[in-house]
C-alpha cells in the first residue's frame, strides 16, 4: 500500500506542478501553513511508521495505539497537515485544483469516520 500511495503522490505533484505558476517570494501565509502542515505529516509518520500510516492494520499488521501529539489534540492530523500544505500553495496553484484535492481528503475523512471500529488500532489495556 505504501508503494501505491507513493506512486499516486508523485502523480498528484506532477499534475499540480503542470498547472502551477511559481513565483518568489511566496506570500506571508505560505511558511507557517506549509511548515506546520508538513510537521504534522512528519510527526504522524514518525509515530505510526510506514505500517500505521498506510493502513497496515487492515492488512493484519499490528499497529499500536498512539496518544502523543498530534493525536488526541487534532482529529485526523495527517489529513489536516496535508490540507494546510495545500492551502499554503494557493498563490501558485489554481483554486480549483486545491479544492479538488482537499475534497478528496474530506471524503477520506468522512469514509474513515464511518468505519467499523474493529478495523482500527486498539488502545493499549
TrEMBL record:
Source organism superkingdom: Eukaryota
GO terms (molecular function) for this protein are:
phosphatidyl-N-methylethanolamine N-methyltransferase activity
Q: Name one Pfam family in it.
A: PEMT
Matching InterPro entries, A to Z? PEMT/MFAP, Phopholipid_MeTrfase
Q: Does the keyword Iron-sulfur apply?
A: no
* GO cellular component labels: endoplasmic reticulum membrane
User: Has the keyword Chloroplast been applied to this entry?
Assistant: no
Gene Ontology biological-process entries: methylation; phospholipid biosynthetic process
- Protein's UniProt name: phosphatidyl-N-methylethanolamine N-methyltransferase
Organism per entry = Forsythia ovata
